[in-house]
Here is the input.
Amino acid sequence: MTGKGEFDFIADRLAPLAAGFKGALGLKDDAALLSVRAGRELVVTADTLVEGRHFPQGTDPALVARKALRANLSDIAAMAARPIAYMTSIVWPTDASDALRNGFVDGLEMDQETFGVVLIGGDTTSADGPWTIAITAFGEVPASKALTRSGARPGDKLVVTGTIGDACLGLKVAQGAYKPDAGDRGYLLDRLNLPQPRLNLAEALQAHAHAAIDISDGLIADSHHLAKASGLALTLDLDAMPLSDAARRWLDNQDDSTASRLAMASFGDDYELACAVPEARVDTFVAELAKADVPAAVLGGFATGSRLTVLADGQQIDPGAGGFTHF
Amino acid sequence: MTGKGEFDFIADRLAPLAAGFKGALGLKDDAALLSVRAGRELVVTADTLVEGRHFPQGTDPALVARKALRANLSDIAAMAARPIAYMTSIVWPTDASDALRNGFVDGLEMDQETFGVVLIGGDTTSADGPWTIAITAFGEVPASKALTRSGARPGDKLVVTGTIGDACLGLKVAQGAYKPDAGDRGYLLDRLNLPQPRLNLAEALQAHAHAAIDISDGLIADSHHLAKASGLALTLDLDAMPLSDAARRWLDNQDDSTASRLAMASFGDDYELACAVPEARVDTFVAELAKADVPAAVLGGFATGSRLTVLADGQQIDPGAGGFTHF
Here is the structure.
């Protein structure tokens, strides 16, 4: 799949990202080797980003790399697993500049250290089309301890980490539709561009949660995914939605509080976790998250049935399209 | 990464391909779980195909699916591993027809049974660009038994499976540049479109070979990859190149035998294996391959140094661009 220029790029720029990981074989082979310790399972996830579809043309390529990697690591976090390694399959546009290529690798390099992952393989090619980045990430979890979407049980509470809606507002800032002060501007853009996969919660999740999902499609859509996969009804109270100070300041200036909360709950890219936790464990779970410096809030609960009930400003509302706003 | 239509497509068409594999979680989660048996390592490989670049627009989508999957399985075969599962990350063109989508899934379905693999996850999206298919495949190999490119030793012979050049001629047929009788036409097109990953040779490779690579870039280029990765010189005799009856008939009608042999040895997509085998083991290795109905031929050997020597019609020739003809 690779032409001459790609070989050089792999050897000069990508191979250093594989240094020290024996099974990566220096990126000189067509495949990589992964060992999984006894009593562990491998978690595998893939996500693809396409320029013009998932990020605007002209986005800093280092940010593209970091967000692509973090989106995958977030899926590993939701399974209560520990990340190990990743592969990249890249289709460069035929006119890709060295700055684009090098910026992308710089971004991977920055985040590898932060998250303790190593590049172990992949594929690069170029084509007459948009820049496309497919990442496959690998994690490890004690056998039978992985959380899935389908484990929620009636009576479980819906617990959400961090704050919701910042990425939604970050996009408004990026598009020039919202112009807060520099502090909020920086904060909201970072929340959009550099999500923080919740990787330090694996033990608390394994110990206390029944199910989890990362919020990439939107709070409502992803919480609903949990309920549907578990065959349960869900009540979700957007008044309990945890907000950052920056989001609170935005919300305080909106005329329609309900529509504003719904917008924040319908946009993806927060990369927080939505978890189903048995009621008796909620306090312990939230306390353990607090020890890891991760705030958490209870937004509702699961019950027998199949209905999705969304509340805002004390009223039941129609969630509408839910979480598909960017498609 | 998925809109409403994609959820339906995953549930209706892709999820059945994951049936029976517990860790695929019915394709309802963002990640999959893979168990690796004690004493085994996981082999992971990724390859991407882009419409208009790696296959012509209008190619039967089932053939695209099968070739994409087989290209990945061929990488697993070259490592002497056994395939287990695969993931697909697909970017559909925004105007993708149902026939394209369904044809693609039909192709995967046909080949899953043949090769004993199961779809365990991935990602689908659509974008304003060419159809792009990234496949990641997983295999299993006894720990420390995987073959890599870098294991060849001085004195090893270069052993090649099957026949070389058929895919090159298949492309000439597809493009209308070569018009043999119907029998050869069908045979050569099949060799181009439906490569046969050499998956039934894992035990013979583990027992007898020092290194292996699959021939996807071309006989010369890939054999040279083996030599370079192993830090060795290689002599490669194109007169010993194994040819199918169809390729022999084509060659007999060419004016320039050397140029014709070079063309066949410089084109990729044969998906045969080039192996480095110690001289004392060659006869046993070839005999074991014969038992598996796989012909094999000795085309040259490795020595200390770094030189690539290519012979054709008894003369040393300049291999030129080697294996990059389709880039």
